[in-house]
Amino acid sequence: xxxxxxxxxxxxxxxxxxxxxxxxxxxxxxxxxxxxxxxxxxxxxxxxxxxxxxxxxxxxxxxxxxxxxxxxxxxxxxxxxxxxxxxxxxxxxxxxxxxxxxxxxxxxxxxxxxxxxxxxxxxxxxxxxxxxxxxxxxxxxxxxxxxxxxxxxxxxxxxxxxxxxxxxxxxxxxxxxxxxxxxxxxxxxxxxxxxxxxxxxxxxxxxxxxxxxxxxxxxxxxxxxxxxxxxxxxxxxxxxxxxxxxxxxxxxxxxxxxxxxxxxxxxxxxx
Length: 271
Ligand code: SF4
Hints:
Blueprint: H1 3-21, E1 25-26, H2 28-36, H3 38-46, H4 58-75, H5 84-94, H6 103-123, E2 129-140, E3 145-155, E4 161-167, H7 175-180, H8 182-194, E5 200-206, E6 212-215, H9 219-237, H10 259-270
Parallel strand pairs: 1-3, 4-5
Antiparallel strand pairs: 2-3, 3-4, 5-6
């Protein structure tokens, strides 16, 4: 079969070309990290050396579990087919023990999670229809693809599309905070592109307290946002493994998990 190796090599080259041609994906999280610190962006997303420094924590685990439980609840029909007990039971089926420092900490979170889901069930019934949960929206922006993962998209009785984002770590939110939130704005831009002509609004819902607030982008704000994203993306796309970025002291350093890398780099510079 003389043609096979040649053919398979061509097929392999085709796959490589396809892989090379894949456009970079830019998400709200990547933009936030880049704006906080370009070096952090390089270490996390370009060289990927930051993954060695990631340690699972209870907050991430707990948040992920609640998101999955609520997603499964809506996927099974939401309030129209599910009871509060069934929602709470989903906490067990989606639970992961990763990140908790002790059994006591884990069981305290399990009790807290059950209470939050009971309250969520009682307070989240509305006249809206849930269109989907936990879905990625994407928009080809030319040089890159803008992506955003939406926790829940509802259609209100008046036809407005409502993007709902759950927060497990915070207890309060205001309209101004939603209006200033870059991720919520990007989700709106993506939803507007996917559903042209529809009114879109974004809501942050704090699971700990049940407090929520909403805001929406006007047409001129959407144009401004797109321009901003394109400018930031140009800076992000210019960073490669070879780009030299020196560590600089900034507010993000106080909580940055990569400070050890930067301290080592600073020490070797001083030598
Ligand atoms: S420690 Fe500071 S300079 Fe270094 S990656 Fe983190 S935020 Fe950036």
